[in-house]
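Batch job 17 of 40 flagged for manual review because the log was empty.
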Amino acid sequence: MRYISRPGKLGYLLPFILLSFIILRAYPNSYNAQDSVKVQAKGTLSARGNKSVKSTGDTTGPQINKVTSKVTGKDTGSAKQQDITKIPGKDTLKVTGKDSTNLQAKDTLNKQLPDSVIYKQTTFTAEELIRGERLFYGLVYLGNKSTDCAACHNTSESDTLNWNPDALEISRNYHAKSAFDLSKVLLKPLGPKMKLVHKGIQLSAEDITLIKAYMDSFMYIGLKKSKPVITNLLLLIIASVLFLISLADIIVKRIFKNQRINWAIITITGIFITWILAVNAIAFGRSKGYSPDQPIKFSHKVHAGQNKTDCNYCHYTAKNSKTAGIPAGSICYNCHFLVRNGTRSGATEIAKIIKALDEKKAVEWVRIYKLPDFVFFSHEQHVSAGEITCDACHGPVKEMDRLYQFADLSMGWCIKCHKTRKVNISNEYYKTYYSGYYDSLSEGKIDSVMVTDIGGRDCGKCHY
């Protein structure tokens, strides 16, 4: 028996290895044809559906026949083709097509809650409240879909008249109501003014619910208040400190050798402190420019100016009483029995009058003009006897949307008016009690009689 060494064995095996490598390189798809076709057929069928099955069968059919015929014969290729195209196609369509669509549809339906459920939400997270705030200020959506509620409804106190209700007022009206009630006002308004303002608003039920949640917070925090100006107070404190330091240096320490610096500081700060105290003491108790918020946004510019309503029609006690009086709700109802929608405020402000009358409650107007208790003033004497028009004391009321105190009502202001105001003494009262002035005026000795001539500067006329 001949012994073959290891190098000899390798010499016999090497040709067989090379021949196997060449065959594999020449026919790479012959062994994997069936598996690759199955994988491709299953993938395309499960991904595309019925239409993809037909197109895939047409395009891959010839390839399958060619490959399988070479390896396993015609019968095997046709059998494999039917098994591959029909059976996996149906199975994958049933499993991945119908079932997946049904499951996804059910999941999306469960996630999208109906509006009736969304509107009933009462608890909110901090993130939801922040989103509600951003929705209110129009910072969430872009383009025409964005709605800036704060552009019309104030979130801070203002001294100018805004016909639209502020955020606090809306919060009070809708605090006990649901978000669905708010949605009807936003999406389906009734009045012509509100239809025009709310036209094109695109808000979902979730958006409206979050906006209402944010607006409910105004019930507790209120409107933002403007910061007070403390310039004069700060200057007064600085001047007082410098005054005291300089005075102490003159009396005790004597740090500065040149005392003229201290005396200059004392003089300047002393004059400034005296001026500040005198001006504020004189203005104490006076309210020039006072313009408080009223329960109803009533515009004298609209009623007295545009509609030319006589002042005495509303303030009917001015001609025969000490005070002009605040009009009763029935006076307003004489016109607003028919007029229920304003061109500027819509139905919001007029509805407040109707509500007060229905509930038999008086509208709590805030008084603007008020003299001290030690001063006597009569509207009857000035309006009827003196024939003074309203704008002489109250200013250009016909131009005021928001009424404010025009004059400071000081004693100097009254006396100045008495010095320059002429008196009509043609009536019987002045003929009887001031006959001397009447005769002198008739004879041409004097050309006019001032209020001061008939006691307009007597202290007892106003202070008694």
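Reviewer: the log was empty due to a logging misconfiguration, but the result itself is present. The two ends are 157 Å apart (CA to CA). Unflagging and moving on to job 18.
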